[in-house]
């Protein structure tokens, strides 16, 4: 069962999501795990191509051996490290995030995959927890004040309260 762990990390390629990713790699991921990065793009008018093709189910499918389902749609590390491939999805991973996951894949012998959803981040992250399914999720916190959090809503707070797996929130520091 340990080899079947699916550790999810919600990423938007910001400083707080990189901190959450680094924390997950350092404290949660073990040899044989699948580290699944979940990113959510806003809904909108999409250009034609692969991005439009996969917007309803997530990213494009990889081999069915991942989690025993052919409907799983993941992008392997080798492809999400390629800027040409990622441009098709409208996602631009930053070099620091790519460095963290490439190093983790090599040193910890884990499988790193990316899953893209389109829509409201709160709902889509909770959907990912159930559909992948994830063993646990690590998510960053932008550190919004009480007023901004009340107006904008907190993605991490929503996921903690509505997610069906253990969720760890990695708080960002005010001075970052």
UniProtKB/TrEMBL annotation:
SUPFAM superfamilies: Adenine nucleotide alpha hydrolases-like (SSF52402)
Superkingdom, taxonomy of origin: Eukaryota
InterPro entries: Rossmann-like_a/b/a_fold, Universal_stress_UspA, UspA
A Pfam family recorded for this sequence: Usp
Domain UspA residue range list: 5-171
Listed CDD domains: USP_At3g01520-like (cd23659)
UniProt name for this protein: UspA domain-containing protein
Origin species: Punica granatum (Pomegranate)
């Amino acid at each position: 069962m340990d080899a079947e762990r699916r550790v999810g990390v919600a990423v938007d390629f910001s400083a707080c999501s990189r901190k959450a990713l680094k924390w997950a790699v350092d404290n949660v991921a073990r040899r044989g795990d699948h580290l699944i990065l979940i990113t959510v793009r806003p809904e909108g008018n999409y250009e034609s191509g692969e991005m439009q093709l996969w917007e309803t189910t997530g990213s494009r499918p990889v081999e069915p051996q991942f989690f025993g389902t052919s409907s799983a749609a993941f992008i392997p590390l080798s492809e999400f490290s390629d800027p040409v491939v990622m441009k098709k999805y409208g996602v631009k991973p930053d070099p620091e995030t790519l460095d963290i996951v490439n190093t983790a894949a090599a040193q910890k012998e884990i499988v790193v995959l990316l899953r893209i959803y389109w829509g409201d981040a709160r709902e889509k992250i909770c959907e990912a927890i159930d559909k992948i399914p994830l063993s646990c999720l690590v998510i960053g916190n932008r550190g919004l004040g009480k007023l901004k959090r009340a107006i904008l809503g907190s993605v991490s707070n929503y996921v903690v309260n509505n997610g069906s797996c253990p969720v760890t929130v990695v708080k960002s520091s005010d001075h970052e």
